[in-house]
Amino acid sequence: MKFTLYTLGLLVAVASAADIYNIEQLEAAKKAKDKNIVLKNIQVPAGQSLNLETNLKPGTTIEFAGRITFGFKTWDGPLVRIKGKNLNIVGKPGHVIDGEGHRWWDHKGQRGNRKPNAIYVQLENSKVNGLYLKNAPAWGFSVNGCKNVDFTNINVDNKDGHTKGALNTDGFGVAASRNVKIMNSRVNNQDDCLALQSDCDHIYFDNNVCEGGHGIAVIGGYGNPKPITNTFIRGCQVIKNNIGIRVKTMRGGKGLIKGVTFDNVVLKDISEIGIVIIGNYLNSGPRGDPTGDLPIHNLVINNVRGNVLKNGTNHQIWVKNAKNWKWNSNVVGGTKKMPCQGVPNGLKVEC
């Protein structure tokens, strides 16, 4: 009898999950303080975000279990907004968050029509696992103000955009965050796989695959002068991107990049430059001499290896006030040479 009662109780607990098929049901479930919300085949109205931030109790589990779609509107988005503490965000097998980005893509990216970013995340002490984002109109995941958050088994699939006019579809943009881990994930897109920006500490980008885009980027001085520290990019593959890995600081910017490590990163068929470290970045490309007010310290390049296509460049370095670097790379194949300027004394880099 005890076993039967326990089983019945378990069935009741499972049945109490709120299955959500529209925005109205979602709002009702949040007001009812449901702690297990299952999203199924929701059509989000044009110009609205799928709101997963207000009225969510700590400890809530949100499961994506169907196809989530969005009405068309030229706006900034995001299509999905996730915010809270102690949340568990889960993508179930067969689900898709379908941005249907082809409705916005115009070959111009941010310079064209307004396009919504896909998923904005501001979480603490939470986990995001197994989400499948397909054809984001613009940025994929905007990770902002997060603390102690794990992202695992994420798939950002924008490969349709290679032939349908997508640009500026960054996979993960991370800013103002602490102790964030992005692991065992895959990005196929038309911009940075990872764009790590100012005011970040202890960011881990481990065992991820980046395909088709602009590589893995650490960007100092973009938006504010707060430093980027203790960043670890390990065990990743960068396949058929135009850039492999890069650390770039804004020309005229202020701040510091300190303690960035690239370890065991494989580059395959990079079309332009394998490793880029520059201190004179502008959105239009490197311009003039680095100003040196945003130096790169304690940079580690270890076991970064692979190939650049013919007419590409293996390494490009143009920095000022850099110090305490360690360098071990084996990037080959590029025939276009660029000078190395500002390499710390005693370090040998083949440019």
TrEMBL record:
Q: What is its EC number?
A: 3.2.1.15
Record GO biological process: cell wall organization; pectin catabolic process
Cellular component terms (Gene Ontology): extracellular region
Q: Which domain of life is it from?
A: Eukaryota
Q: Say which enzyme class the record assigns.
A: hydrolase
Any one GO MF term held by the record is: polygalacturonase activity
Q: Which Gene3D superfamilies match?
A: Single-stranded right-handed beta-helix, Pectin lyase-like (2.160.20.10)
In the record, which residues are listed under signal peptide?
1-17
Q: Does the keyword Lyase apply?
A: no
Q: Which reaction does it catalyse?
A: (1,4-alpha-D-galacturonosyl)n+m + H2O = (1,4-alpha-D-galacturonosyl)n + (1,4-alpha-D-galacturonosyl)m
**InterPro entries linked:** Glyco_hydro_28, Glycosyl_hydrlase_28, PbH1, Pectin_lyas_fold, Pectin_lyase_fold/virulence
Q: Which UniProt keywords are listed?
A: Cell wall biogenesis/degradation, Disulfide bond, Glycosidase, Hydrolase, Repeat, Signal
> What SMART domains does the entry give?
PbH1
Pfam families to which the protein is assigned, alphabetical = Glyco_hydro_28
Which protein family is it in? Belongs to the glycosyl hydrolase 28 family.
Return the PANTHER family for the record. Answer: POLYGALACTURONASE
Name of this chain's protein: endo-polygalacturonase
Taxonomic placement: Eukaryota, Metazoa, Ecdysozoa, Arthropoda, Hexapoda
